[in-house]
Amino acid sequence: MGSEEQQALEAVAADVAAKRYAPLAEQWDRDRTAFPHEERRYLGELGFLGLALPEEHGGGGAPLTVALAVIEQLAKECRPAAFQVFESNTGPAQVIARLGTEEQKSRILPRICTGEATMAVAISEPDAGSAATDMRTTARVEGDTVIVNGSKRWISNGSEADYYLVYARMSDAPGSKAIGAVVVEADRKGVSFGEREKLMGFRGIPSADVIFDDVEVPAENLVLGAGRFRELFGTFAIERLGNSTMSLAIGQAALDRTVRYVQEREQFGKPLVEFQSVQMSLADMLLQVEAARLLIRRAAEGVGPGTLPDSLQVSLAKCTANETAKRVTDLAMQLHGGNGYTEEFGLERLHRDSHGWALAGGTPSMQRIRIVSELLGRSFDQRR
């Protein structure tokens, strides 16, 4: 896809975000409304849901950077809408596209590209968040069946998705050596869901426990067996770039609104932007947003069907973007004064959502540990 085509696609995404979703985003947040299925299918009709998925399975075959650009445009106005594009292009569907069997690809990916179905990733558990390899969920292979038992927590799109890519222990080996992944359909007998979490942000993106009680799925649903956790998490780096882009969009939206506001709002007889302290804050906001953008761009450049991003570059991008979103939205609220603390101006919603993306997919603290591990070429045992 050429630069002109990408710019045209971004323009369409920005137009859809501003005209179709911006008027609804505040109400969906207030009511904790799950993104409507018909709207997901609309995004599928636009081709947004399969941008970075293989053409032979209904996708657009575009570079990852194209999907990230669309995610950013949507996320500046409506995170629940952007989440649909995030989940399909950078989420577990990428695992199927890259590591799944041909049968899995042809069965699942076309439905995701059209918006007919969604897939969520199920990694975290009540006692295994950042320490993902402490997971206890099991997937036992018996003949031509896989039996799944356990529970997953903090599952974005939990209770809403049609498929779950479940990370589970598939042998008695210690740590990551036992972990693989299996697809579990939401309507399988033995699958149930906890109540939807009442989160500070993420309100249009359902989150709930997913519980597996002797759930039987065919062996064809096995994506990767025990001992391939490194491959799974290598692909998960793409999801972290999607996450980084959501944070970038939040920071950019807060910056854009603040640039307008400080030029229009007057105090002591002149626009706010005339005050040096405001200029300093505005400069800091721009510095942080542009730094995050460049780090994401560097990490995503060249990622294609057969290539993965560099783990160090991804951690640098995610840590920076997550913290940028929190800092910039906080500064934006301060520069808006009392107006920044109201729901009317939408900054508090940006700030609430910024904290959610920093928690999802590996916190900034965990990213810092990964950064040092990659920098020094060694791992650190956090359990000692």
- The CATH architecture of the largest domain is Up-down Bundle
CATH topology of the largest domain: Butyryl-CoA Dehydrogenase, subunit A, domain 3
Question: What top-tier CATH class of the largest domain fits best?
Answer: Mainly Alpha
> What count of helical segments does DSSP give?
11
Strand order of the largest sheet: 1-4-5-8
Q: What count of domains describes the coordinates?
A: 3
Organism: Prauserella cavernicola
Protein name: Acyl-CoA dehydrogenase family protein
InterPro entries: Acyl-CoA_DH_CS, Acyl-CoA_Oxase/DH_mid-dom, Acyl-CoA_Oxase/DH_mid-dom_sf, AcylCo_DH-like_C, AcylCo_DH/oxidase_C, AcylCoA_DH/ox_N, AcylCoA_DH/ox_N_sf, AcylCoA_DH/oxidase_NM_dom_sf
Family: Belongs to the acyl-CoA dehydrogenase family.
What attributes does this structure have?
Butyryl-CoA Dehydrogenase, subunit A, domain 3; flavoprotein; 384 residues; Butyryl-Coa Dehydrogenase, subunit A, domain 1; four-stranded antiparallel beta sheet; Butyryl-CoA Dehydrogenase, subunit A, domain 2; acyl-CoA dehydrogenase activity; globular; 10 strands; AcylCo_DH-like_C; flavin adenine dinucleotide binding; alpha+beta; four-stranded mixed beta sheet
